[in-house]
UDP-glucose 6-dehydrogenase
Amino acid sequence: MRVAMIGTGYVGLVSGACFADFGHQVTCIDKDASKIDALNAGSIPIYEPGLQELVAKNVAEQRLSFTTDPQDAIRQADAVFIAVGTPTRRGDGHADLSYVYAAAEEIAGLIEGFTVVVTKSTVPVGTGDEVEAIIARTNPDAQFAVVSNPEFLREGAAINDFKRPDRVVVGTEDDRAVSVMRELYRPLYLNETPIIVTRRRTSELIKYAANAFLAVKITFINEIADLCEKVGANVQEVSRGIGLDNRIGSKFLHAGPGYGGSCFPKDTLALSKIGHDAGATLKIVDSVIEVNAERKKKMADKVIAAMGGSVKGKTIALLGLAFKPNTDDMREAPAIDIVAKLKEAGANLRAYDPASMHEASKIMPDLMFCDGPYHAIENADAVVIITEWDQFRALDLDRVKSLVKAPKVIDLRNIYKPDYMSERGFDYVSVGRAY
Ligand SMILES: NC(=O)c1ccc[n+]([C@@H]2O[C@H](COP(=O)([O-])OP(=O)(O)OC[C@H]3O[C@@H](n4cnc5c(N)ncnc54)[C@H](O)[C@@H]3O)[C@@H](O)[C@H]2O)c1
C-alpha cells in the first residue's frame, strides 16, 4: 500500500515508520521544513526510544521518505493519514481543528482515484463528517472515504504500542475503506490483534472515552493518596490491593503530581466540551479536570511545606521535567507549574532532565539547566524528583548526600522506599505514604 502521512510529529513519525516497517511505501509530510530537513539528514526531531533505528532502517530500504511537498505522495496514495495536532483552542477549551481542516483541503485538491482519508489525530465527534464535506466541496469529483482511526500509542513506548496494540479501531461504513485499513494493518491482523470496526462517530468517541477514563483513574488514586496522608495509610499498598482485582486493573494507579502531556489535559477538556454541547454533561470528567489542575499547583505547596513553610533563598534541585519518562515532551508537564510557583516563592532552582531540557528551555528560558543529576543537586537544600526516569531510581545516595547542603528528598513519584531513605539519613517526603 502507498501511504501519505500528513503531520510528522510524535504520532505521524512513529506511525509512518511503523507502517513502512510493515512493508508499505510511506511518505511523511510536514510543513515544518526544519523537521523534514533534520529527518532527511538522518536525525530525529523527537526523543522516542528505538525510533532512530527504525527510521534509518526503513529509509535505507527505501520504504520511508520525508518531504514538505504533499503533491506526489497524496496523488499516489491508497491512504492519506491526517496526523496533525489538535491542541486546545485558545479561549474556549474546544479542540482546535484548523490544522485538520487545512489538511483536508490540501488533500481534496490532490487525490486521484479512490483514496481512503484517515483521521489519526484525536478529533471531536463529527469531525470526520466535516472532513468529508470539505473534500466533497473542494473537489466534487473526488472518490474517497473518510475513516476514523484513532491512535492509542504512548510516548516513550510508542513503537511497541503501535506494533503490538491492544486493539485497532476503524470507524467507517465504507467496505472498500475497511479492506484498505485491514490491508494496512495486516501484520497485526495476522497477530490476532482485535480490529474493531464501528461507525465513524463511535470511533471518534472511543479515543476520548479511553483517555478520559485513564485520566479518571490517575486522578482517583491521587485523591486517595491525599486521604492516605491524612489517615495514616500507604497509597502504593492501596493501589496494589485494588489493582489486583481484575475488574480494576493495576495500570494508571500510581499516585503522583497530576497528569500532564500532550493528550490527557486537552482531550479531557475537549470531551467535556463535546458533552456540554451535546447536552450530556460529563460531571466526572469535569471534576477530574478541576482536581488535576489544582493538584499540579499544590505540588509546589507540598515542597514549600516540606521545607518548613518557606523556600525563599533556598536552592532546590529538580530531577526530571518531562511529563513522564522516556520522552522529551513538555506539554502541560506538572514541572511547569512547580517551577513557576517555586520561583515566585523565591527559590533558586537547578534542573536536570535526560531528554527534555531543550524543550523545557523554550517554555522556561530562565531555569538553570544542569549537566546531570549530580550537578543539579550540588549544594541543594532539597532535591525534588518530578519525573521517574530510571536513572533517578538508581542514584548513588552516598554521593547525593555528600553533594547536597541538606539531605532532604521530596519524591513526587514514590520511586524510593521511605524506610530505606530514612535509614540512609535522608529527610524523605513522598506522595500518599504515611509510612
Ligand atoms: N503525542 C501522543 O502521544 C499522541 C497519542 C495519540 C494520539 N495523539 C493525537 O495525534 C495528533 C498529533 O499529535 P502529535 O503529538 O503527533 O502532534 P505534533 O505537534 O507532535 O505533530 C503535529 C505535526 O503536524 C504538522 N502539521 C500541521 N499541519 C500540517 C499540514 N497541513 N501539513 C503538514 N504538516 C502539518 C506540524 O508541523 C507538526 O509537526 C493529535 O491529535 C494528538 O491528540 C497524540
Residues 6-12, 29-32, 35, 83-86, 99, 102-103, 106, 121-122, 151, 153, 155, 262-263 surround nicotinamide-adenine-dinucleotide (CB under 6 Å). The chain has a mean pLDDT of 97.
